[in-house]
Specification:
single chain; 177 residues; mainly alpha; elongated
Length: 177
């Protein structure tokens, strides 16, 4: 059997670069997840909400790391995923990875900006923002499997149970701005 070529060890700079790339992708995924969840909460995704996502990513510096096409493709995929069974739970779980970390503030601000983008704040958008805050504040605890069906359609009807199971912190904070 032929010998495999020896793997070259990564330099410290390559390790740091790979780590930062993974963190940037994780943050990008969280911002896109939040934007998609908030945008579709009122039943339709407004073009102003898509534009706001691009603006938020530009202001955060992430737009320079990913193309607009990559961002919009990921956004549309997430919107479709949120319409499926288990989509809200998957979104919640993916946001929990940032719980308690400093990038979570960027994610919340992105959601708030997208909610305001079409000129009106819908009660369903506010409920989803509460749930996003819960996900980002959660460290450990049960998921939202029981509430997923109600949350998938943006109605927010299982939110009281989610608040009870994950704490009341986000519900008390309100929408900044």
């Amino acid at each position: 059997m032929p010998a495999r070529p020896a793997r070259r060890a990564l330099s410290p700079a390559e390790i740091v670069t790979a780590y930062l790339d993974a963190r940037n992708r994780e943050l990008m995924d969280a911002v896109i997840t939040t934007a998609a969840w908030v945008a579709r909460a009122d039943g339709k995704v407004d073009p102003a909400e898509r534009s706001m996502l691009i603006e938020v990513l530009g202001n955060s510096g992430l737009l320079s790391l990913f193309s607009r096409e990559e961002i919009m493709d990921a956004f549309e995929r997430r919107v479709r995923q949120l319409r499926t069974r288990g989509g809200a739970k998957h979104a919640f779980d993916s946001l929990e990875r940032l719980a308690g970390r400093s990038p979570s503030r960027i994610v919340i601000e992105a959601g708030e900006s997208v909610a305001r983008a079409d000129g009106r704040l819908d009660a369903r958008e506010l409920r989803i923002l509460d749930l996003i805050r819960l996900a980002l504040a959660a460290r450990h605890g049960p998921g939202i499997a029981d509430e997923d069906e109600e949350l998938r359609d943006g109605s927010g009807n299982g939110l009281q149970d989610a608040r009870a199971s994950h704490g009341r912190r986000a519900a008390q904070e309100g929408l900044a701005g």
